[in-house]
Amino acid sequence: EVQLQASGGGLVQAGGSLRLSCAASGLNFADYSIGWFRQAPGKEREGVACISKGDGKSYYNDFAKGRATMTLDNDKKAVSLQLDNMRPEDAAEYYCAVRQEPWCRLVITKRTEYVYWGQGTQVTVSS
User: Fold this and answer.
1) What is the C-alpha separation between 86 and 17, in angstroms, rounded?
2) CA separation for the pair 50, 31 (Å, rounded)
3) Cβ 50 vs Cβ 70: under 8 Å
4) DSSP assignment letter at 53
5) Residue 13 contacts by C-beta under 8 Å, 6 or more apart in sequence?
6) How far is Cα of residue 14 from the mean position of the Cα atoms in its chain?
7) DSSP state at residue 92
8) Nearest to 115 by CA among 7, 26, 15
9) Which residues are CB-neighbours of 11 under 8 A, at least 6 positions away?
């Protein structure tokens, strides 16, 4: 059974930082492209960042560029999302997901392209 579990959420002040982590069981991250998404109440789920299996590079949605860093651990067992200079609009439930195709840059915002999803972790940003 495939399970993805996001963790690391919490309350952070505007301008602060948070590091989210996603661990997998039942699959090897090395076999997938990996994405981070977020969903705020009343809004659509949107892509934040992804790592392509094909080239190992990280790609970011425009709002995350310069403020987010997504990395895959060397042992390929966990993926993290570092969020810096956080804003109140970053408050959301954050999810990790995977897709088997080797590339993710062009589908960074397309949640339907991802096959396995984890339970989210809540991020709250105080102003």
Assistant:
1) 6
2) 14
3) yes
4) T
5) 86, 125, 126
6) 19
7) E
8) 26
9) 124, 125, 126
User: pLDDT tens digit string along 94-103?
Assistant: 999 999 999 9
C-alpha span between 37 and 3 (Å, rounded): 16
32 vs 115: CA distance, rounded Å = 10
Place of tokens 């195709």: 101
As given in the structure block, the two tokens for residue 125 are: 């940003």
pLDDT digits (tens, 9 = 90+) for 27-77: 999 999 999 999 999 999 999 999 999 999 999 999 999 999 999 988 888
Cα 25 from Cα 68, distance rounded (Å) = 25
Beta-bridge partners for 45: none
**E strand spans, 2-120:** 3-7, 10-13, 18-25, 33-39, 46-51, 58-60, 68-72, 78-83, 92-99, 116-117
The dihedral built from the CA positions of residue 29, 125, 64 and 18, taken in this order, carries a sign that is negative
